[in-house]
Write a structure and sequence with these properties.
two-stranded parallel sheet, 279 residues, two-stranded antiparallel sheet, mainly alpha, 4 strands, 13 helices
Length: 279
């Protein structure tokens, strides 16, 4: 039931949203209605990022602020009405505009929600706790509370500068990032930007531990190339160049699902060049 599509202009987004609204007015099963509704909020979220990427084309501060306000309201709507992992897109937005405290607040909400025993990611959940806590609720409400999805970063949009190299090198149309990896990455970046070395290092360790000991329930095998890459990026940003080189090496050893080897080699070369200059 995971639907991820995007449009390349405002006209197509509006047309797609009208189409889904009309479809919701037809006779649908509960499953069909929930699927279409989720698709609608995915469109709303992606439309907001399309708008954010158009900000640079606006000349006046008034126009830019209007777009920011409209986009943030759309992201908040998608966060309230879609699956549990949707809040990470809001955290990404706050990080991008340097609202680090707000981003951290979103991340903490996500972390608290995902600690529940009934959460569902890639088919993994405690069936007993899921039935005990959620049975009897409408399907849409169950998904809002329990469903965690991969984070999709479409190559045609800029989300955060730290992943631009990977988006440009990516052989697919999007980066697919495990939500637990993105959660920890954003914890590291926000704490680092705020100068909180202790918390950034703890979040970095949490991410490293996740990749070392996960049993496949939180990091899908085919997404380990981007996951190790993200750990390396965080380590490089925090000044752990030896650790970053090791993580980039691990990324190259994984199945190249995203085809980001060019970005990995570029980041490795940057560190090696630094050592030559400083050594």
């Amino acid at each position: 039931m995971i639907i991820e599509t995007y449009c390349d202009n405002e006209k197509n987004y509006v047309f797609s949203l009208i189409l889904t609204e009309n479809l919701l007015k037809t006779r649908l099963t509960a499953y069909q209605a929930t699927t279409v509704e989720r698709h609608r909020f995915t469109l709303i979220r992606d439309f907001s990022w399309y708008m954010l990427n158009q900000v640079q084309t606006k000349s006046s501060n008034r126009d830019r602020m209007y777009i920011y306000k409209k986009a943030i309201n759309m992201l908040k709507l998608a966060t309230r009405m879609s699956c549990s992992s949707e809040i990470l897109y809001l955290a990404l937005f706050y990080y991008r505009i340097c609202a680090y405290e707000k981003s951290l607040k979103c991340l903490q909400i996500a972390k608290n929600k995902w600690s529940m025993p009934y959460v569902l990611y890639d088919g993994h959940t405690s069936e007993e706790m899921y039935r005990h806590c959620l049975m009897g609720l409408p399907l849409g409400e169950r998904l809002r509370r329990a469903l965690i999805c991969d984070i999709f970063l479409h190559n045609i949009y800029t989300y955060i500068d730290e992943l631009l190299l990977e988006q440009n090198a990516n052989c697919s149309f999007s980066l697919f990032i495990p939500p637990f990896v993105m959660l920890n990455m954003l914890f590291v970046l926000n704490h680092h930007r705020l100068g909180d070395t202790v918390r950034s290092q703890q979040s970095l360790q949490d991410l490293h531990t996740l990749l070392l000991y996960d049993d496949g329930t939180r990091v899908r095998e085919k997404l380990k190339d981007i996951s190790w890459q993200i750990l390396g990026i965080c380590q490089q940003i925090c000044g752990d160049y030896v650790g970053a080189l090791d993580s980039y090496r691990r990324s190259l050893q994984e199945t190249p699902y995203h085809g980001i080897q060019k970005a990995t080699l570029s980041r490795t070369q940057t560190i090696n060049d630094m050592h030559v200059i400083n050594g």
